[in-house]
Design goal:
By secondary structure, the chain is mostly helical. It has one domain. The chain contains twelve helices and two strands.
Length: 352
């Protein structure tokens, strides 16, 4: 448990106090945000704000995790290292996208096919490696069973597991990317979801089948270490949020949004709570759904729209809501979704 506190505190410290240094470096090099001309006009004042802040989130999370293990002298686990690898790989895809935008001074970086290819490639590698490396009990980081709030009896098999992981990772990373449109919105929602992962990881560790005598114990490979990693990610995001809150001094960019989406999907998969990620990351689901509905309705009706603009947060901007108001209310929705997810997790344990 000490590792969770150390990881969260150190990641928070690194992110909080090193982000200003990154802001100065990025500003000196002119790596500022490029604003789309077809977006809300209120965003034009944000043009030039340093972007690629996801760099510090990744570094702070990794540092918090490593320092926690160094101080507690506990071994690092394959599950957490695979999630860190996935997060870093998707962060690299996002970094390329951000780099092309700032270097070209246009709002177009990687095209959609290139970005999806990178996400699919690294997600597939994560899925393949995750069903290997069994521990002494034969448990692999990723189960071959479909999971809801725990593993079900539905066996997917190796190929379907990899395909399922690819779908989860690409959907979640793009969901966080779509949510990252207002100052602090995606960062704050991510903090809440990572905190829920801490609680779930600790609970699964305390109720693991190797020590629990109940029939509804959990068969999860490294739940406590995944809780340590989740604490590190929550701390890193919280420290970054200090500078990303309105008016933002820095944006996470695709570097951060793709990395955080990968971490969310990777941890949910490794904790065997794959479908529970839908309520736990409810805000990301809602905002992604708004884009899907907008596109489908637009095509079906020959040009009509459900929302004034998608993603959903921009619809409310065009309705006249203030940015801070939207962010606060969406954070409330995110908190309620997390509470629902945790309630479902606990209710399943009680009912079983």
């Amino acid at each position: 448990m000490r590792g969770i506190l150390v990881a969260g505190a150190f990641a928070l410290f690194v992110s909080l106090f090193d982000t200003p240094l990154l802001i100065r470096i990025l500003a000196r090099r002119g790596y500022g945000q490029i604003i789309r001309d077809d977006g809300p006009t209120s965003h034009h004042i944000k043009r030039g704000t340093p972007t690629m802040g996801g760099i510090i989130i990744i570094l702070a999370a990794a540092a918090g995790y490593l320092i926690a293990h160094a101080l507690t002298r506990s071994p690092m686990t394959t599950s957490a290292l695979l999630v860190l690898g996935l997060m870093s790989a998707l962060g690299f895809v996002g970094f390329l996208d951000d780099w092309l935008k700032v270097s070209r001074q246009k709002s177009l970086g990687l095209n959609a096919k290139q970005k999806i290819f990178g996400q699919v490639l690294f997600a597939a590698i994560f899925g393949y490696l995750g069903i290997n490396f069994p521990d002494i009990d034969g448990l692999t980081p990723i189960s071959q069973n479909l999971s809801t709030v725990r593993d079900t009896s539905i066996v997917l098999g190796s190929v379907l597991v990899i395909i399922w992981v690819v779908l989860m990772v690409t959907a979640t990373s793009n969901g966080v990317n779509l949510t990252d449109g207002l100052d602090g919105l995606a960062t704050g929602a991510a903090v809440m979801t990572f905190i829920s992962f801490i609680l779930i990881g600790v609970w699964e560790f305390g109720q693991r089948c190797s020590i629990a005598t109940t029939s509804h114990c959990y068969v999860v490979r490294d739940p406590l270490d995944l809780a340590v990693l989740s604490a590190s990610l929550a701390g890193a995001c919280a420290g970054f949020l200090w500078w990303n809150a309105s008016p933002a001094k820095i944006f996470m960019g695709d570097t951060g949004s793709l990395a955080l989406g990968g971490a969310l999907a990777g941890i949910a998969t490794s904790l065997r709570i794959e479908l529970l990620l839908i309520p736990l990351g409810g805000l990301f689901v809602i905002i992604s759904a708004s884009v899907i509905l907008q596109v489908l309705y637009f095509k079906a009706t020959g040009g009509k729209r459900i929302f004034k603009m998608a993603p959903l947060q921009h619809h409310f901007e065009l309705m006249g809501w203030g940015e801070v108001t939207i962010v606060m209310r969406f954070w409330i929705i995110s908190g309620l979704c997390v509470a629902l997810g945790l309630g479902l997790f606990y209710a399943q344990w009680v009912s079983s």
